[in-house]
UniProtKB/TrEMBL annotation:
It comes from Limosilactobacillus allomucosae. This is RNA-guided endonuclease IscB. The gene is iscB. Residues 185-236 form the HNH nuclease domain. Keywords: Endonuclease, Hydrolase, Nuclease. One of its GO terms (molecular function) is endonuclease activity.
């Protein structure tokens, strides 16, 4: 069984999804036209009776992946997964570094920017990376609500107690006593915790420094658990290098330390989903786990969404999963901060337009193409002169021969895409990422 195709009547109202074979016939006979790609939707050009059945939409909300499932009675009509971008914060940090260095290097008359933050102007402000993920969760739910006839919406949300995740025995007044209780600064607390002793050579006295175990460039934070006391003799460049004492601390700590960013995001997302969909039915992960075991489904984002949709038994289920992934189309850096492999010096003279090629010879970035004399298909991810790079929705290069580049003369257009790409893979080939 394949995933169903969503249908809109000629008046713009949602109808029951149809089989792909039916959709192909309607398109071939000129009785329908495609109007959406994510998810694929057709609109009828003639009148229909519009018979509708009860439909449920299950959503497994998340920070990295969103599971989506459409069910009706005992049938799963559609199952899919959306992969959200995780590089927004890193790109914003890079842009801030470029702007700061340029301001200090060329435009010293420009004052530093620190009093114009948007959080001082609006309530409920979120960092751009967090706001982007929250909005994508809401917008993808709205996409499916728009192509389904009066669906019952079921959403799984997360609720986490970060204090109890750090200390399982915490209770009562203990929530009011954080790590820094009784101390004025983080540095003062770390020094007192380590007894003013270097944690590498175990010597007291001398010039002490506070060292990040997991570097901030690697996602580390200024929380006390990520800081240790190190003397000036041990806090050297050599000890930071692979094989050095501090680098060994970093590797050991990285293996056992769990970030709480995901839990924090889910707490933020829960409140925004409540406000955006007040009529939806919400549930938590523990309930989903028990229900999924009762249905005999394996752990996956789309299977969680099927379970969340409140289906009681399954008689029909698609053998494939529709995967959606966002495509980054712009490169805003004016030059290379780090020289690419094979180049000794960074390229600081190349113009922005030359480095941000969006189209070439009738093809655009993210166009869905097929290599001639082959059944291999994929999305254009970049151009190099008369050639291009082609990737599938999972980020793997589509290669014929030993080179990643494919000549533009050897590919043919299937369809033009926006900044979202989609592909359908077999459910038994799906792996949790």
């Amino acid at each position: 069984m394949q995933n169903r195709v969503f249908v809109i009547n000629q008046h713009g109202e949602a109808l029951m999804p149809c089989k792909p074979r039916t959709a192909r016939k309607l398109l071939a006979q000129g009785k329908a036209k495609p109007i959406k790609k994510e998810p694929f939707t057709i609109q009828l050009l003639y009148g229909s009776t519009g018979y509708k059945q009860p439909v449920s939409l299950g959503i497994d909300s998340g920070q990295r992946h969103i599971g989506i499932a459409v069910t009706s009675q005992a049938k799963v009509l559609f199952q899919g997964e959306v992969e959200l971008r995780q590089d927004v914060k890193k790109l914003l940090d890079t842009r801030r570094t470029y702007r700061c260095s340029r301001r200090n290097r060329k435009t010293r008359y420009r004052k530093a920017r620190f009093l114009n933050r948007i959080k001082t102007k609006k309530n409920g402000w979120l960092p751009p990376s967090v706001a982007s993920k929250c909005q994508h969760n809401i917008s993808w739910i709205n996409r499916f609500l728009a192509v389904l006839p009066n669906p019952a919406l079921h959403i799984e949300v997360g609720k986490f107690d970060m204090q109890k995740m750090k200390d399982p025995n915490i209770q009562g007044i203990g929530y009011q006593y954080g790590d820094l209780y009784g101390y004025q600064t983080i540095k003062q607390y770390v020094l007192a915790r380590d007894e003013y002793k270097c944690q590498v050579c175990k010597k007291k006295g001398g010039k002490l420094k506070i060292h990040h175990i997991i570097y901030r460039s690697q996602g580390g934070t200024n929380v006390p658990s990520n800081l240790i006391t190190v003397c000036a003799d041990c806090h050297t460049y050599k000890n930071h290098e692979p094989g050095g004492i501090l680098h060994k601390w970093y590797k050991a700590k990285k293996k056992v330390t769990k970030s709480l960013k995901g839990a924090t995001f889910m707490n933020i997302l829960r409140h925004r989903l409540w406000r955006a969909f007040p009529d939806a039915e919400f549930q938590y992960g523990a309930q989903t786990t028990l229900q999924r075991a009762g249905l005999g489904l394996e752990k996956s984002h789309f299977n969680d969404a099927v379970t969340i949709s409140s289906i009681q038994r399954i008689t029909e289920k698609p053998t494939s999963v529709v995967m959606f992934k966002q495509f980054r189309k712009k490169k805003r850096s004016l030059h290379e901060a780090t020289a690419r492999k094979g180049r000794k010096e960074p390229n600081c003279t190349s113009k922005r337009n030359a480095k941000n090629t969006k189209f070439a010879k009738g093809f655009w970035l993210n166009d869905y193409v097929r290599i001639k004399n082959s059944q291999k298909k994929g999305y254009i991810s970049g151009f190099t002169g008369n050639s291009c790079y082609i990737k599938d929705c999972l980020g793997n290069y589509v290669i014929i021969g030993k080179y990643k580049q494919t000549a533009l003369s050897k590919i043919m257009m299937i369809t033009h895409h926006n900044n979202w790409c989609s592909t359908e893979i077999l459910a038994n080939e799906y792996t949790m990422r």
